[in-house]
Specification:
Layout: H1 2-16, H2 25-35, H3 38-51, H4 55-61, E1 77-86, H5 101-115, E2 138-142, E3 155-158, H6 168-171, H7 180-186, E4 196-201, E5 210-212, E6 224-227, H8 228-232, H9 236-239, H10 241-249, E7 300-301, E8 306-307, H11 326-339, H12 342-345, E9 383-386, E10 389-392, E11 404-406, E12 418-422, E13 427-432, E14 439-444, E15 457-460, E16 470-475, E17 486-494, E18 507-516, E19 521-522, E20 534-537, E21 542-545, E22 550-556, E23 561-567, E24 571-573, E25 581-586, E26 589-594
Parallel strand pairs: 1-2, 1-3, 1-4, 4-6, 11-18, 12-18, 19-26
Antiparallel strand pairs: 5-6, 7-8, 9-10, 9-13, 13-16, 14-15, 14-17, 17-18, 20-21, 21-24, 22-23, 22-25, 25-26
């Protein structure tokens, strides 16, 4: 007991002596919404949509399973990260403002251990009760490949001159230094759909040590900015800051939301309805920030009238960063997998040898011209789904002037932007839109001519689709189309129609499809071909075949490699537990099976 009390005092020391507003996320979010009011509308629509979702059903469908005792047994979601180090005064690697690769890796490892509740120290281990931790099922991995299929360490160093970033070396970012936008213009994001971008800077103005974008933020604002000491310090206060900021990037809000953490007289946040007030999580009690001395669970929480229940140890509370809660995990998974699921499907953290991505397309003569101006109408596809294409993206606005996006060029890092389709079979195209009603159309360049003929219009809404709607249409690729060749698949959602028309308000997106003859067999269809049969045994969690299997690879339906090996028998023991539909590639066959 004495050791435990000393640990609590240690945590209290660092937080009671911390700079005020060490986290500037709320302030930055308000600034962005003032500049672009459509972001507030999108945030509110996002919250309303998630409140209508059956969270248990949704999380189960994503493999986020929890045992009756509270232990997390589901999927751990890998997020590829790129760390951009903005070095002042040309400092050498390993010095104060330019952490070494080893220091960065240790920082990432520490963060992963905190998320997994295995860090030790003041991080509570997984369990139940007020002083127990909750596994947050995310793992950060430094990128292994670039967008153009080159190897990378996932760490980028920049040495700006005073002409390139005036005032940065002296004053850092914000306040009297440069803006975050100046930093990202100088050191651009890697594709937000495939990498989480982290910036290490020398200092942050306004008393901050970090800030981060939410999953529903614009792509231009979806990143984390951290001071160098967060990545290099060995004291727990600094080590715990990035997990707090990452909490925002996976969808979590402060547990004192709506109250001023620096007020002389502390005011409790409104919490009449835990689903809509404060942090919108029902197992986190309202609290005030910077509690000093840090109370234990025998003290009354003035915001509830009952004893503290561990909220003072919460990662999002501005007190002692020791734990998340199951409710926070559920909210994070709902927010992140709804808005940023592409990151979990990215090949960015996969070595090039494991999956080289899809092929490249023939150049198109159907060019979308820059309309120059964007408006806060938030038009364009939010989600495109066809076959294994399942791409969530940001609609167009002042904050995101992306009128045309060629996702087909991202096939090296994003398996969600290309798919194989079988001719003469029916597929359902789904396109979701947000704020305004729009026309939705889609084309496939079946003859690979580089343009789109009238006969290649495969889906057409005819009239405008209402806002906040997922529209669907059936597509049947013809047997006369070019086979086994990457073909351009174009989707548009806008006020206008036409494959090549400039969108005044919406967006046009290109993807890749490859048409195949009927060679992929499901386990139920293999009776038509007795050469090779594979079935799944649920009791043993293995695949059983009628022939020796040999070399094999198993992919999920997004194209991510799940398992591979060589087995000189008729059985393959599966090393993964998540249910779903998978494809095993063996002996020139691609065979789907349900697990």
């Amino acid at each position: 007991m004495k050791k435990y009390l000393l640990i609590i005092a240690f945590g209290t020391f660092f937080f009671s002596n911390a700079q005020k507003n060490f986290c500037l996320t709320d302030q930055v979010q308000k600034e962005q919404e003032t500049k672009d009011p459509s972001l507030k509308e999108k945030r509110e629509a996002n919250e309303a949509k998630l409140r209508s979702v059956d969270s248990r059903k949704f999380l189960k469908s994503k493999g986020a399973t929890v045992e009756a005792n509270g232990k997390y047994t589901g999927t751990i979601y890998t997020i590829p990260v790129v760390v951009h180090i903005i070095v002042p005064n040309n400092e050498a690697i390993g010095t104060q403002f330019n952490p070494s690769d080893a220091q960065v890796q240790t920082w990432i490892d520490n963060t992963n251990n905190i998320l997994a509740t295995t860090y030790g120290g003041t991080i509570f281990p997984e369990g139940t009760g007020p002083n127990a931790g909750t596994v947050m099922p995310f793992q950060l991995v430094l990128a292994k490949r670039t967008e153009t299929c080159n190897a990378t360490t996932g760490i980028e160093r920049y040495y700006p001159t005073t002409a390139e970033l005036p005032n940065y070396s002296a004053n850092g970012v914000r306040d009297t230094g440069v803006t975050a936008s100046q930093i990202t213009a100088f050191a651009p994001h890697w594709k937000e759909s495939s990498y989480y971008n982290i910036y290490i800077v020398n200092t942050i103005g306004d008393g901050g040590t970090g800030f981060a974008g939410f999953p529903f933020s614009s792509d231009s604002g979806y990143h984390a900015f951290m001071t160098y000491k967060v990545a290099t310090s060995t004291d727990f206060f600094n080590i715990g800051i990035f997990p707090h900021e990452l909490g925002h990037s996976i969808g979590l809000i402060h547990t004192f939301e709506g109250s001023d953490p620096n007020a002389t007289v502390k005011v409790c946040p409104v919490n009449n309805d835990c689903t809509t007030d404060n942090d919108k999580v029902c197992d986190t009690s309202p609290n005030t920030a910077y509690l000093n001395p840090l109370p234990d669970n025998t003290i009354i929480n003035p915001c509830t009238g009952s004893n503290y229940d561990g909220i003072q140890y919460n990662m999002m509370s501005y007190n002692q960063n020791s734990k998340f809660t199951p409710g926070q995990r559920d909210r994070a998974l709902l927010q992140f997998l709804t808005n940023r699921e592409n990151l979990t499907k990215s090949l960015g953290a996969t070595p090039l040898a494991d999956n080289s991505g899809g092929g490249t397309l023939k150049a198109t003569t159907c060019i979308i011209v820059d309309p120059i101006t964007s408006f806060n109408y938030a038009e364009g596809p939010k989600l495109v789904s066809l076959g294994s294409i399942n791409n969530t993206s940001e609609s167009r606005s002042v904050s995101n002037h992306k009128f045309y996006i060629d996702y087909s060029s991202q096939n090296c890092i994003n398996p969600s932007v290309y798919t194989d389709l079988t001719v003469a079979q029916t597929y359902t195209l789904q396109v979701s839109i947000e704020v305004n009603s729009q026309y939705i159309q889609a084309w496939i360049d079946y003859d690979n001519s580089g343009t789109f003929e009238a006969s290649e219009l495969v889906a057409n809404s005819v009239t405008k689709v209402p806002k906040n709607t997922t529209w669907a249409a059936n597509i049947i690729p013809p047997a006369t189309a070019i086979l086994n060749t990457p073909l351009r698949f174009r989707v548009r959602a806008s006020e206008e129609t036409g494959a090549c028309t400039t969108p005044a308000y919406g967006q046009v997106e290109d993807y890749k499809v490859t048409l195949k003859p009927s060679t992929i067999l499901s386990t139920n269809e293999q009776k038509a071909d007795s050469k090779f049969v594979i079935g799944y045994s649920k009791n043993d969690n293995k695949l059983i075949s009628n022939k020796t299997i040999g070399n094999y690879k198993i992919y999920d339906m997004s194209g991510k490699l799940i398992q591979k090996g060589t087995n000189n028998s008729k059985e393959v023991n599966l090393t993964f537990s998540q249910s779903g539909v998978y494809i095993i590639v063996v002996n020139s066959y691609s065979i789907k099976f349900n697990k």
